[in-house]
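Troubleshooting log. The previous structure file for this entry was overwritten by mistake, so regenerating from the original sequence record. Sequence copied from the archived sheet and checked twice against the printout by T.R.
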Amino acid sequence: MEKSKKMHDFLERIHGKLIVSCQAVPGEPLYVEEQSVMYLMARAAAQAGSPAIRTSSIRDVVAIKKETGLPVIGLVKVQYEGYEAYITPTMKEVDELVEAGSDVVALDCTMRRRGDGRSINEFLAQIREKYPDIILMADISTYEEGMNAWKCGVDILGTTMSGYTSYSPILDGPDYELMRRLSQDADIPVIGEGRIHEPAQAVEALRTGVWAIVVGGAITRPLEIARRFMNAVEAL
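Regenerated output below.
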């Protein structure tokens, strides 16, 4: 299927909707070394109506696509020496995600240091040369990074990294202003993501003009959910 058709179908599917992020990394309660269990979270998300799933690791991309049949936004979280970015930071991870059948490949498009000496612009050009037909989602933390990624030819912007870089605003909730500005100024779809903890925030995020939203921890990370309740009770 040609890229324009894939893009159209994916964007139509997710427009105005909530995508559930199902991720577990080493050290988290739902990470099991022997096998993936996140396909069960994805099963619940699919039954609830999620139009697509965002997930990390090759094994979860494969397991979730098999379980749900839904489009998958795939990424790989890995920390290399010399790299500040950890979401799909090198071509190795891009290759693996393409091989695994990720419908969308998500990667860190912040301006932080890269261990290979390339700028993010050079890395994106390298990906586009090798894989001209894949759908790329840029995880960014600021307006400037979003506009830069758009001009570099990515297909979708995600506000995923806002608050997770040293130079972006630290907020208790979603970065509505970033969602609003990028939706107005970038000529590609924007997906609102990051610190959407409750349904009212999800609705408010969609009202900023973003194409869709992603919610992860508030739905699929039981330790994070439990701590939120515990902290509220302890504060009382």
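Residues 157 and 207 are 17 Å apart (CA to CA). Archived copy saved in two places this time.
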